[in-house]
Input
Amino acid sequence: MVKIENAISTEGGIWKVFGRTVALRDVSLKVPKGSVFLMMGPNGSGKSTLLKIVTGLIKPTRGKIKVFGMDPWKQRPKIFAQVGAMFEDHAPPDWASGKAYLKYKATLKKVEKPEREALAAAELFGVEDFWDHQVSTYSSGMKRKLALTDAFINDPDLVILDDPTVALDKEARLALQGIVADRAKQNKTCVIASHIITEFENHATHLAVLNLGQIVVTGRVEDVQEKMGIRRVTIKTKQPETAANILMKKGYPIKVYGNRITVEGPEDPNEIINMLEKLGIKAETEETKVSLWEMYTRALTSS
Output
């Protein structure tokens, strides 16, 4: 039996053409199982189109994509129980109650007790507080919570979320972040397309930046940082002014934040520490965290 390492993978570049519009151009993608995969890009970059191909909602013009080793366009019923999704244009029917809608979706996933499963998902975001009412009476935030709940019915192995935090209150956003983190510990995969990068700053393990229908860069977060040429050393010392003057005279590009000095560039941190200590300055290095926003903007400007 072949072991499947990736929740999503492509075979050949994915293309999608709508009339004269090329929405996706030769896109190759691998989403490892258990990853929190953040998909970033400006409006019109192709994020939603790519995710709809992954879920089998639309067919690629060229190329193949696999979800748990299966073709989502040809084998959608087989992967339906393993995949949950919420898209920006997700619109539950106004005439139904939230409870009826979620129970129906649980039934489609062929769970043994649809109402119990619907309730378990509803409780993730507090939807059970209003799910007896018709969707037509819901606020935009309530509708978003209902759509989000739909994605987590039956605790699927892969959840795909397209701008999930739009119109959500702070409590729901924090709940979503916690759920994403907990799922990763269970080796369950989340793919999130979002304009609000900071929401998942501390949880993303992998990312892809799209622009004009193409992937600019993709991979593990630390690998993307390396690919973008973002190298930074942070030095902590009780003599920041003296250390900063020495480093500037040596030609190092630096920034000073209190007793911490950030050195830009592919410098060996041990060499810097040894140099300072030889000059009588005690110092130590700290792990330098590069923001996803910096990686994102660097990727777009380089494309």
Q: What stands out?
A: The chain has a mean pLDDT of 92. The longest strand covers residues 6-18. The CA atoms of residues 201 and 288 lie 14 Å apart.
